Amino acid sequence: MFKKPLFKSTINLLLNKNCNSKTININKSIIRTVTFSTEHDELRKTCNRIIEKDINPFVNEWEAKGMYPAHEVFKKLANAGLFGITRDPEYNGHGLDYSYSVAFFEELANINCGGIATSILVHTDMSLPALVNFGSDELKREFLAPSLSGDYVACVGVSEPSGGSDVAALRSYARRDGDDLIINGSKMWITNGAQADFMCMLVNTSHGPVHRNKSLVIVPLKSPGVTVARKIDKIGLRSSDTAEIFFDNVRVPYRYIIGEEGQGFMYQMMQFQDERLCVSINAVSMMFRVIQETIDYCRQRMTFDQPLINNQYIHFRLAELQSDVECLKSLNYRAADEMMNGENVTYLASIAKLKAGRLSREVIDSCLQYFGGMGFTEDLLVGRAYRDNRALSIAGGTDEIMLGIISNLMGILPKKPRKADEKLANKS
């Protein structure tokens, strides 16, 4: 029987502890960097015990199947106190600060594939934030509490077959019928979609302006009319099930709307920031791991009577890559600090997401080259990381979407012409 690690037993001792921070005065602004304590170390050890015992021994099998037993893995993580780290204890959370989540995200990179870590993060920090921040007490008890105890698997439904990046243009629609909503439409590229118990679904609930006519709705996926059309065969992240789901007159209670009707677009934009920061933090740890495994390989690989690592081009290149990853790590910690202070992290999280996607491609591609033919196999982490991490520049907002957000926050994104200006332009 699974034995609960020490971390769960120390949760109550941590509730009033704060993460110590260093302060540096730069241009009269205070920048703090996240630091970690022995309690964070205990969380890391707990997470790694589960990874080494209950996940990594089965990764090759799950990758081949294209799915892993999410309910089973989630229950073990939740029993260890690793779900709901920052959430309200009233709903099976632990009430700790975000630095403990940072430690958790980093340790998930020790899983020998990207799909399982992605699935876990979709559940903890992509599907649940809006429910945590805006959901009613009734909704939280019905869906959040069992999600944090590992009894439910959650997914988030935004992208549709007609497009993923233009969130405002989604077509799924829910009309009110008395005390219920009746939902029709479809969602695409849904991580956890084949196993999830419920979806946090962004759907049109009126015919008003596109940024004010959407709501986030909890949709139980065993409801009549919900069909998992297919599990998508992906080139990477293979062990996470990714599905296309159809909704045909699916009836759910009106009270399943999270927060206020019509505010779903805003809630989802806020939810995206949790998503983008956590994937960047996880990606940095994976890049460090790939670089270290490349160093180990190049030290023992002999070419022309000397270790491969002695080649100046190789050790200089690895030093350069390590330097770039360290810079992104610092940016992530700065964003995490602002998150803990309750500040808007859209700007920093968007930059982190952009750079994580691009840098991971550079790091992993460069490292794979030094493994030669061995790197282009399923036998080594670098080969799997090569195909898994490509999704970072696509999922959760493409690089181009990130650049648009950053440009807008810099005040340099061109404004769309007014309709009157468009008519004038068309006449001329």
Features:
428 residues; alpha+beta; Butyryl-Coa Dehydrogenase, subunit A, domain 1; Butyryl-CoA Dehydrogenase, subunit A, domain 2; Butyryl-CoA Dehydrogenase, subunit A, domain 3; 3 domains; four-stranded antiparallel sheet; three-stranded mixed sheet; 15 helices; disordered N terminus; AcylCoA_DH/oxidase_NM_dom_sf; flavoprotein; Acyl-CoA_Oxase/DH_mid-dom
CATH architecture of the largest domain: Orthogonal Bundle
Radius of gyration: 22 Å
Class based on secondary structure composition and strand pairing = alpha+beta
* Alpha plus pi helix count: 15
Q: Which CATH class of the largest domain?
A: Mainly Alpha
Number of structurally distinct domains = 3
Spans of at least 5 consecutive residues whose pLDDT stays below 50 are: 1-30
Shape: globular
CATH topology of the largest domain: Butyryl-Coa Dehydrogenase, subunit A, domain 1
Q: Please report the distance between the alpha carbons of the first and last residues.
A: 76 Å
Lateral arrangement of strands in the main beta sheet: 4-5-9-8
Q: SSE order in H/E notation?
A: HHEEHHHHHHHEEEEEEEHEEHHHHH
Estimate percent helicity: 40-55%
Q: Can you identify the CATH superfamily of the largest domain?
A: Acyl-CoA dehydrogenase/oxidase, N-terminal domain
Largest sheet: 4 strands, antiparallel
Q: What portion of the residues fall into strands of 2 or more residues?
A: 15-25%
How many β strands by DSSP? 11
Q: Quick check: average pLDDT?
A: 90
Pfam families: Acyl-CoA_dh_1, Acyl-CoA_dh_M, Acyl-CoA_dh_N
Protein name: Acyl-CoA dehydrogenase 6
Family: Belongs to the acyl-CoA dehydrogenase family.
Domain Acyl-CoA oxidase/dehydrogenase middle: 155-250
